[in-house]
């Protein structure tokens, strides 16, 4: 997400796609070799070896990485999976009442997938559909999953919130709330979702970052299980995924409303006040794509923006098929009504997300528990202006994320 003339635009597009291809391959190269290649690249760049003609050398670079990785892998010792830490809190909601191991050693002889997730992360939520399918197909053959939850927003460091989320998503595997981030750091994780496949000996054999890239993971799971259970090869593989194909639509990047590491999306000229202070916002025209224009009194913080009156509004410009918002209120037992309008009108039922309600006044959200809310599910991919109008104080808006045409069945 963090990634002149027409001819220059076309060249830039080709370069970006090629860089993405190399990045996907590079992630599969062993870590020690990866560091070596990075060091050599830096040296070559310093002496002017790498030129803008890198596009012409791309096939050679790709083949060289694969060959080098293959040769290097023969000498590389397997990486031992770090154990779960004692300061984490286990939430065994998925174990059907059965006691489950709380250590990597306890899963010896099994194939274990460690899934780092975050309960407000739509990328993680969409991947649950795939993981549940694998769990159903392979669990009887010795395939296990442990979900390690590490929070992105403060709400994610509350074990009760994690427990509620695990129940809401009906996760059939055990979950551990990594409230101190000890497991997250032990695995050097820095993205959600983040998956580590551990073999029967307790070694990490595959690491996949981010949503998607599922086929290599399933193939490796089957390969490991087939050593003791050859009949797993009779189980049909999941069909190839195309959820990020250009034809699916390329939506707006994740929108952080708070002043999040310099990525805050407030479009007003006043923008961010000192953390925790109130700003009286006045709209400065329409927001650009991925930006939020505020009116009324709001408190700006690093992790979001909180309403300080009942007449404020937040307007988001986006292009996508669906919209999700991470929202919270001061007291979950006192829900806050948030009226919704898209392109100047209340949402129609045909374009409303699963959390939208309707009454004589129009469309609205009832925000209570701190979580991700399903706000918009348009009939088609497109550009829109979405307005949120909280009807009470202490409503917090944290972030927006989006879905394309090919991700609707994974929500």
Summary?
With 411 residues, this protein is α+β, with helices and mostly antiparallel strands. The protein has helices at 6-26, 31-46, 54-73, 122-138, 159-168, 182-186, 214-226, and strands at 79-80, 89-91, 111-117, 143-149, 175-177, 194-198, 203-209, 255-256, 278-281, 292-301, 304-307, 313-329, 336-342, 345-346, 356-359, 362-367, 371-390, 395-403.
Order of helices and strands: HHHEEEHEHEHEEHEEEEEEEEEEE
CATH architecture of the largest domain: 3-Layer(aba) Sandwich
Q: What is the CATH homologous superfamily assignment of the largest domain? A: Glutaredoxin
- Terminal Cα separation, in Å? 19 Å
Helix content range of the residues, please? 10-25%
Oligomeric form: single chain
Structural class: alpha+beta
Low-confidence stretches: 1-37, 39-76
Number of strands: 18
Given this structure, which CATH class of the largest domain is correct?
A: Alpha Beta
Shape: globular
Arithmetic mean of pLDDT = 85
Total domain modules: 3
Question: Helix count, per DSSP?
Answer: 7
CATH topology title of the largest domain? Glutaredoxin
What does the radius of gyration come to?
A: 23 Å
Strand content: 25-35%
Main sheet: strands, sense, barrel: 11 strands, antiparallel
């Amino acid at each position: 997400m963090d990634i002149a003339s027409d001819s220059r635009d076309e060249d830039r597009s080709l370069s970006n796609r090629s860089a993405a291809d190399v990045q996907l391959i590079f992630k599969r190269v062993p870590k020690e070799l990866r560091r070596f290649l990075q060091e050599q690249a830096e040296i070559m760049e310093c002496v002017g070896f790498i030129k803008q003609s890198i596009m012409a050398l791309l096939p050679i670079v790709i083949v060289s990485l694969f060959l080098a990785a293959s040769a290097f892998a023969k000498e590389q010792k397997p990486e031992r999976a770090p154990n779960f830490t004692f300061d984490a809190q286990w939430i065994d909601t998925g174990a059907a009442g059965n006691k489950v191991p709380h250590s990597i050693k306890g899963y010896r002889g099994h194939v274990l997938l460690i899934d780092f997730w975050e309960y407000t992360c739509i990328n993680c939520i969409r991947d649950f559909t795939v993981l549940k399918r694998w769990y159903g197909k392979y669990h009887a053959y010795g395939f296990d999953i442990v979900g390690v939850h590490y929070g992105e927003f403060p709400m994610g460091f509350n074990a009760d919130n994690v427990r509620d989320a695990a129940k809401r998503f009906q996760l059939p595997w055990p979950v551990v709330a990594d409230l101190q981030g000890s497991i997250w750091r032990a695995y050097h994780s820095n993205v959600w979702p983040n998956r580590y496949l551990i073999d029967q000996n307790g070694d990490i054999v595959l690491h996949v970052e981010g949503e998607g890239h599922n086929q290599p993971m399933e193939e490796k799971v089957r390969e490991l299980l087939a050593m003791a259970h050859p009949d797993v090869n009779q189980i049909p593989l999941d069909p190839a995924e195309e959820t990020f194909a250009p034809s699916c639509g390329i939506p707006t990047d994740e929108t952080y409303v708070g002043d999040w590491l310099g990525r805050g999306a407030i479009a007003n000229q006043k923008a961010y006040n000192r953390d925790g202070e109130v700003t009286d916002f006045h709209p400065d025209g329409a927001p650009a794509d991925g930006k939020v224009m505020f009116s009324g009194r709001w408190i700006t913080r690093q992790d979001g923006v909180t309403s300080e009156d009942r007449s404020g509004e937040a307007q988001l410009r986006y292009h996508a098929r669906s919209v999700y918002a991470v929202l919270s209120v001061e007291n979950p037992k006192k829900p806050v009504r948030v009226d919704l309008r898209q392109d100047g009108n209340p949402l129609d039922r045909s374009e409303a997300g699963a959390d939208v309600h309707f009454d004589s006044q129009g469309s609205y959200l009832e925000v209570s528990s701190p979580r991700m809310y399903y706000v918009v599910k348009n009939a088609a991919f497109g550009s829109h202006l979405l307005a949120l109008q909280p009807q009470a104080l202490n409503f917090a808006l944290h972030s927006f994320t989006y879905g394309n045409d090919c991700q609707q069945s994974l929500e």
